[in-house]
Amino acid sequence: MLLQAPAIAGRRSRRIRSAQSPAGSSPTKPPTPSLSSWFLAAAEAQWQLTRAQNAFDKAQYAIYEEQPDCTLWTEEHHKLYSKFQRYQSAAERSFQRAFHDVERLRRTQLKQEEVAFKRDLDNRRFALRQDKTRHETALIQAKIDLTNAKNRAATCSEP
């Protein structure tokens, strides 16, 4: 008995419901809504890939059950095998695209966070340098005032 091709495309609402994780299953949420939609697309692509792999495995098993020797496969067997192989390849490409999109977005976000961190670090260093300069100036002024006071005390005490 040969399997029929699954309806991999279509039925979007069921795919989306299956791709969404149940509440409380993830300890952290994606930081932004746009990143969340990219994660959802990648999860959906992964689900489609798993579904295509399972369908390919079932088709392959059904063909081998019917004819274990692949050299004796009929044209129908080869067509069915190649059809499910195409479904699986398309799902793999779709998943890779979605995964790379998420990774690219994640790298961009990390780069932006790194730039913001470095900018904040530079601002704090600048503020520290200003404080240091202000304190050094106050110290120099205190030394000058002390020297002036000593000189005045010395001139007042001389007869």
Please provide a written account of the structure:
The protein is mainly alpha-helical and 159 residues long. Helix content is 79%, strand content 0%. Helix 1 (12-19) crosses helix 2. It starts with 11 loop residues before the first helix and ends with a helix.
Offer a concise description of the structure.
Helix content is 79%, strand content 0%. It is an all-alpha fold and 159 residues long.
Task: Based on the model shown, name its key terms.
single chain, mainly alpha, disordered N terminus, rod-shaped, 159 residues
The N- and C-terminal alpha carbons lie at a distance of 126 Å
E-strand count: 0
Name the poorly predicted regions.
1-27
Q: How many individual helices? A: 3
Mean pLDDT over the full residue set:
82
Radius of gyration of CA atoms, rounded to a whole number: 35 Å
Basic shape:
rod-shaped
Q: Could you say which structural class the secondary elements and strand pairing correspond to?
A: mainly alpha
What is the percent of helical residues?
over 70%
How large is the share of residues in beta strands? under 5%
Largest sheet features:
none
How are helices and strands ordered from N to C? HHH
Write the layout of secondary structure elements.
Elements: H1 12-19, H2 33-66, H3 75-157
